[in-house]
Specification:
Helix content: 10-25%
Radius of gyration: 23 Å
Order of helices and strands: HHEEEEEEEE
Length: 147
């Protein structure tokens, strides 16, 4: 009899605790997933991985707040130790980025779109080299640890 009472008591406490916790939203829970059109440059800040269809080499990109242009990002791209500067923005889900190896001339452009339902953590588009007119589809994915 004592064991049955203890089991019922534990079960009752667990049910009451679980239901109470579900009725009160957690103020520290992450915000809902933004729509692609609502993504702003601040959503881009952090480390990203770029993969290109047709190229065996991938790249990492670090987006930071642009020091001179509000509403834009800047940073760097690294392809196996070969580094370049980047600057760009995102507006209504449209992503534009310019890449420069010397800080003076544009070496490549990235034109893409934030993937709907990705919470701003995936961008797909076309990378275009200005030196040889080569174009490759790309996908950018935000790396874990960056919100």
């Amino acid at each position: 009899m004592k064991i049955s009472f203890a089991i019922v008591l534990v079960a009752t406490c667990a049910i009451g605790t679980g239901a109470g916790g579900q009725n009160h939203p957690n103020p520290s829970a992450p915000a809902s997933c933004p729509l692609a059109a609502d993504i702003s440059p601040v959503h881009l800040y952090g480390l990203w991985r770029a993969e290109f269809d047709g190229l065996p080499q991938s790249a990492t990109i670090l987006f930071e707040r642009h020091a001179e242009l509000a509403g834009s990002v800047s940073g760097g791209v690294n392809r196996d130790g070969v580094k370049a500067l980047i600057a760009g923005d995102v507006d209504q889900g449209e992503f534009t980025l310019e890449e420069s190896q010397d800080g003076q001339r544009i070496a490549a452009t990235w034109l893409g779109r934030v993937v709907e339902g990705s919470c701003g953590k995936e961008i797909r588009g076309i990378w275009n080299s200005t030196s040889n007119n080569a174009s490759y589809p790309f996908v950018l994915r935000k790396q874990p640890g960056w919100q």
